[in-house]
Amino acid sequence: MAVSEMLKLRVISHKSVKDEIVDSLLRMGIVEFVDLPSVLSEKIQDLSLYREGDGKAISEVETFLNDLRLAIDFLESANENKRGLIDSLLGERICVSRVELEEKVKRVSYKNIVEEIRSIERKLADLKIRKAQLLSDRDLLESWKELDIPLEFFEEGTLKTAGLIGSLKLEEFERFSKDLGENLSLWQMFPLPSSPGERAFALVYLKEEAEKLQAILRGYGFNAFTVPKRKGTPKEAIKDIEEDILELERERESILARLKEYLVFLNDMKIIYDYISIALAKQKATSNFLATSKAFMFEGWVRKKDREKVEGLFSRYEGLIAYSFEEPSFQDDVPVVVENHPVIRPFEVLTSLYGLPLYGKDIDPTPYLAPFFFVFFGMCLSDAGYGLVMTLLITWFLLKYGVRMSFSVKRFLSLLLLGSISTIIFGALQGTWFDGLFDQVSWLKPLGSVLNKVKLIDPLEDPMRFLGISLALGIIHIFLGVVLKAYVNIKQGNLKDAIYDQIGWLWFLSSLLFFGGVNAGWIYISLYRFSQVMVLLSAVFLILTQGRGEKNPLKRVVKGVLSLYGVTGYLSDVLSYSRILALSLGSAVIAMIVNMLAKMVSNVPIVGIIVALVILIVGHSLSLLVNALGAFVHSTRLQYVEFFSKFYSGGGKAFEPFAIKTRFTDIVD
Amino acid sequence: MELSTAIAICGAALAAGLAGCGSSLGVGIAGEAGAGVLTEDPKKFGLVLLLQALPGTQGIYGLLAGFLIMNKIGLLGGQLVSLTIQQGLAIAFAALPVGIVGLVSGIAQGKTSAASIQLIAKRPEEAGKAVILPAMVETYAVLGLLMTVLLLNGIKI
Questions:
Q1: For labelling, which of A177, A518, A544, B26 has a CA lying 20 to 30 Å from the CA of A502?
Q2: Does residue A257 fall inside a structural domain?
Q3: Strand A223-224 to A161-169 pairing
């Protein structure tokens, strides 16, 4: 139910057992290595210790691993028997035993395969570019179809004549042709189709007059086209290009066929990928070890409860190993892991989303936020029908795919599952089952009336009371936050802060509430005087204590008085909980709209019922998605902004033990 | 139909129309940013879509408020309730918070969503935080809706 206690492990041992020890630690997955050079003092560095790692070797392996990864991805995309959506989301895991793994790695010459696949990938990309070029050439020539001049003419011309193709702005064209007539002795123009506002043409002219022509062209915004390097008239060239495209297609097919031959290696490549990445992780971890010629040393973090396991491992190497466990010191950057009861564990999602607790400074907020998130989510979504659907779907999904899911996905789904159970409870209390769908369909009415028996409050009919409940929950939530801060302060020995800040504020806020309650007539009016005195006393208490950092007594009082302004912060925090009412109303009314639309069409004979069913299913699915998202986001926000701000800082570093992490495979012993 | 009913209908139209504008602008802004990120990494589609959808809630709130008004004045089947001019005006005014706040916050939330999409493009592991930031903007749309609902609830017919 809290942040796990950590111990610092320091080990010095003989090199002969290094591999064995590292392997065992990898398999146990309970130690996080510390980057040693950063923690060693200069004194120790004098003792001819050196870092073991070979940076170059590591980066070479990393490059290869990256290539392998790209090859796998590429091969995967060529895989015809596509995997389903769920499979590709969760990733199919390959089960492989340790012995099998070692053998595979020896047998397959994966390096060549990767090279080959990468080269196929490059070839395909090249083909794609060539094809695009051909297609654009063809489109260009298509517009010159009527031109009966071979293309090579525009390249070199004849003995006396030459040609060019290009376009001009429409408004310049007339002036241009006049210019031509006045300056050139012999020329012919062939109009070509062009984009609107332009005039495209082919022009044949005398070679001896080329310079004159250039001079004229310079005076206009002439845009010369690049003529594709082909033989024959445009019509013939198009035929040529089409043959080339077919040729490219054939080439592509054959390359793809060759790629498919590699599909049989896909599984092996995945296995090898994981094998190499484990080896790489090992190398990286040990590269931070320090060593002499005979011995090596490392430091790491272990959970206190795992201490015995580590000692058990080390006892096998008696005489070759020296180690110690130490409590973390004040300036250590201790990695954090939180542990909670299985029922509360899903709520850790929210804690780690915000940032884990700082070791030794924060408490684990998970158990405290859990009940509130549970209630808020249910109240926001507040439709028992939706809750039921979600519960069934998530349960089915967890049962079917749970084994293959990663820990974090499973934890998140469990959180949603708890949320949907809460939705059933609070939906039933508010009497919404698909928003009264059961009351509207005649043969479901009896069911509806049974379900309505547990109904306590309808936010649509009595929004003010529901608002009151929401705000009251908010007040409890915020008070708990302040109490927790007091607890943290007391635990850290800041008793004074706890009394002056938290208890003082709690006193003041509850006096204000009490006073308000008496004024509103909820509490005996005879206590009016008493409540007034309480408010005054607590306000004076705050005025006297809040400025205690100041030396100057006048400043102290001023700061104390100003601190009372903090009450507006609490007020806006409490009002923020009104969103529970708004979201609850939102989901109810959207469901109502869906039902009403369905009802409108259901009167049409025969087709009506079918269309109504479609509207109901699609509409309620959408409404469920939108409202569940809203309920989740806003219940989370209430924890982060209103609750955490009172006592929690977060920003702890997650504990990441050195362990086997695989992408594609599960390694079994 | 009386003038008062028409005024109330104007309120419903403003609520749904203004908030809908806000959402469509916001979702559009976020979508533009999302498309950019997807050209680099199509696998992020799910997350990007989620972030793009966040400024969409204002439109829903507007629709919801419009619907409540229609329900209140009996426009949804049943008899039209006869209103005084004052009541009609009151209903139209009550529709304004959700409409105006929806318009402005929808755009603002769209910008925040777009920024959050950039965030997950660089650091996909921070998706949780990226979702919370646009939700901070949405608070005010929720409050606008709440005000509209409470006001409508307070208008006795």
A1: A518
A2: no
A3: antiparallel
Structure tokens at A138: 């063809």
Judgement on whether residues A438 and A418 belong to the same structural domain of the protein: yes
Answer yes or no: are the C-beta atoms of A287 and A58 closer than 8 Å: yes
Q: A343 with A372, same domain?
A: no
pLDDT of residue A669: 65
Write out chain A residues lying below 8 Å of B145, CB-based: 582, 585-586
Tell me whether residue A564 is in a domain. yes
Report residue A297 as tokens.
């040393």
Q: A562 and A463 in one domain?
A: yes
Q: Is residue B76's pLDDT more than 70?
A: yes
Could you tell me which residues of chain B have a Cβ less than 8 Å from any Cβ in chain A? 50, 53-54, 56-57, 60-61, 63-64, 67-68, 76, 128-129, 131-132, 135-136, 138-139, 142-143, 145-146, 149-150, 153
Q: Residue B135: give its domain's CATH number.
A: 1.20.120.610
Please state the three-class secondary structure of A611-661 as a single string. HHHHHHHHHHHHHHHHHHHHHHHHHHHHHHHHHHHHHCCCCECECCCCCCC
- Check whether residue A296 and residue A380 sit in a common domain: no
Nearest CA distance, B128 vs chain A (angstrom): 6
B88 pLDDT tier (thresholds 50, 70, 90): very high
Backbone torsions φ then ψ of A380, nearest 5 degrees: -70, -45
In a domain, A375, yes or no: yes
How far away is chain A from the Cα of B147, in angstroms, using its nearest Cα?
A: 9
Tokens of A210: 């080329």
Residues of chain A with pLDDT under 70: 1, 36-56, 80-92, 107-109, 669
Please check whether residue A31 is in contact with residue A657, taking contact to mean a CB–CB distance below 8 angstroms.
yes
Chain A partners within 8 Å of B98 (Cβ)? none
The C-alpha atoms of residue A380 and residue A423 are separated, in whole angstroms, by 8
The per-residue pLDDT for B156 is 87
Q: Which structural domain range is residue A162 located in? A: 152-227
**Could A581 and B146 be called an inter-chain contact, meaning their C-beta atoms sit closer than 8 Å?**
yes
- Domain CATH number, residue A158: 3.30.70.2750
pLDDT digits 0-9 by tens, A386-421: 999 999 999 999 998 887 777 888 899 999 999 999
**Shortest Cα–Cα distance, B65 to chain A (Å):** 9
What pTM, to 2 d.p., does this model score? Answer: 0.79
CA A413 – CA A397 distance, rounded (Å):
9
Domain count, chain B: 1
Q: Is residue A87 part of a domain?
A: no
Please give the DSSP secondary-structure letter assigned to residue A205.
E
Identify the residue whose tokens are 């489109």: A139
Question: What is the residue range of B85's domain?
Answer: 3-154
Q: Write down the H helix ranges in A30-162.
A: 36-39, 42-45, 55-78, 85-90, 98-107, 110-143, 152-156
Judging by beta carbons within 10 Å of its beta carbon (0-12, 13-18, 19+), is residue B43 exposed, middle or buried? exposed
Bridge partners (DSSP) listed for residue A308 = none
- Are residues A523 and A553 located together in one domain of the fold? yes
Per residue in A37-49, pLDDT (tens digit) is 544 555 555 555 5
CATH number at residue A317: 3.30.70.120
Q: Which of A181, A198, A227 is the last residue of a domain?
A: A227
Count the Cβ atoms, other than its own, within 10 Å of residue A180. Answer: 17
Residue A351 and residue A371 in one domain: no
Count of domains in chain A?
Answer: 3
**Shared-domain flag, residues A337 and A371:** no
User: Are A445 and A593 members of one domain?
Assistant: yes
